[in-house]
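yo, ADP-dependent (S)-NAD(P)H-hydrate dehydratase is done. seq:
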Amino acid sequence: MKRKTFELYTALMQRIDPLGPSLPLYDSQASRAIEQRAAARLPPHTLMERAGQAVARLARAWQPHARAIVVLAGSGNNGGDGWRAATLLQRTLGPLGAHVHVWSLGAAERQPPDARWAREAATAAGITHGAAPPPWPPDLVIDALLGLGLSRPVEGPWARALDWLQHCPAPTLCVDVPSGLDADSGRWWAAAPVRPRGPRITLALLTLKPGLFTGAGRAACGEALWFDDLGVASGADDLAPRAWTTPSAHWPDVAALRAAHDSHKGARGDVLVLGGQPAPAGGGVGMTGAAILAARAALRAGAGRVWVALPAAASYIPAFDAGAPALMLRSGDAAFADALHTRAVVVAGCGGGAAMAPWLPRLLQEAPRLVLDADALNALGPVAATQASPDTIWQTRAQRGWTTVLTPHPAEAARLLGCDTAAVQAHRLHAAEALAQRLQAVVALKGSGTVVAAPDATPYVNTSGDGLLATAGTGDVLAGLIGARLAAETDGRTPEMEQRMVAEAVAAHGALAQAWKRAWPPAANDLIA
Ligand SMILES: NC(=O)C1=CN([C@@H]2O[C@H](COP(=O)(O)OP(=O)(O)OC[C@H]3O[C@@H](n4cnc5c(N)ncnc54)[C@H](O)[C@@H]3O)[C@@H](O)[C@H]2O)[C@@H](O)CC1
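structure:
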């Protein structure tokens, strides 16, 4: 399709840019409220007509040569959108030799009024339909099986249809929410693979939902996420978003650093990385590299001075890091003796192993700006067990206006919450919020669509990054970036600012992966080379 025609077809919709501005995300309850309000002031079926048109337009823009089209339509309004799109596609593409077939599931008599209207209009227009896929191979599939209404496991014929959908090699356009995905949480409700076999895009309607961006959401949506607000964007003014997507990655701001001609290294902020057990000969497990990665990342992101404190005797501390000679290496004991932890932003944990446990109580009591990662998180449980009232330390830190950031991956979050990893992944926003509330801290729950939560605040869900980040050491890089982001702001700050700063660092971390252009995948150090 010519570029101009593509732009014409998609003019009223927006392709979501993973590095774009922060957008509000509405859960199913708010989305339904917005829908009901809009429906009340518009002529009957207007929203479904607009939804069907949007789907048909994007289908034609994306796959202009498709002539064998299957629409999987469920029994709710998501299916209604599919029926409507089928009619509109048959009307415009039929004269060009196209055939549109609806594979319909669920009882027609239980359909909501809009969906019934769309189905009846389709059958009156002669659209073929049945309870099975057509015998011919499709060159375009429209998934309108389950949308906002899914909140239980997909079983029986629905599960078989979903399995077909996930294994189908044909390009697939998902309507509103990929079938199988929970719109609120990003949980995957089906046994079918989350990662579809063929090319796939998703068109969100009316609102963007949090589940599209976290957990299984990114993989389920496919290569691109499009959004059409159906002309009722203003309907949500008084409704609180469930979350926001992360702000665009405007940090590190190289131009601002250049413009600060009268600046000096002290003004850029200090970071102290505590971690990196030495090799077995030095009494550790050989994780020095983790601390080095975090420290290099902090330096790369603009921190003025970065120290690495290793849990080893002075004789085991490397003289310097040949890859980043600006790093200052010393023993943990020396760093504490200098009270560095009271002045710098402390990034603790990265490869620290069991050596973190003895340091942790002191850090919690004395370090005003603390990022706890990996082994520091693992050490929290044993440390808390030795305290009479484990929650007091978090309250005290908050009352002093001190900063605490935790960066757990799902298994670490599960350990801290006393549940299993599956429970965290099924409710990523809730899990991050619960941890933030309990520990009075900013929590970055890692994984696809990192959630950045803070006490009594609306969480951010990160949109940047991709599967390239699934390799050893990228978590250490993230911890270092968060440290540098917090260190860059030396003036007064609010909890909201801190949450936003962590979200910016998370967004910048994802942007590193997206900027990777070479044929071979990057190791963690390549991302900050
Ligand atoms: N009413 C309208 O005009 C509009 C509707 N919209 C569409 O409507 C959708 C929401 O519609 P609904 O609320 O009807 O929800 P859905 O169409 O997502 O699903 C509801 C139906 O699916 C069934 N169902 C749920 N979970 C199931 C499972 N695991 N196995 C089998 N069946 C299951 C329910 O019993 C119900 O019959 C949105 O996702 C969107 O696509 C939007 O286009 C906005 C406009």
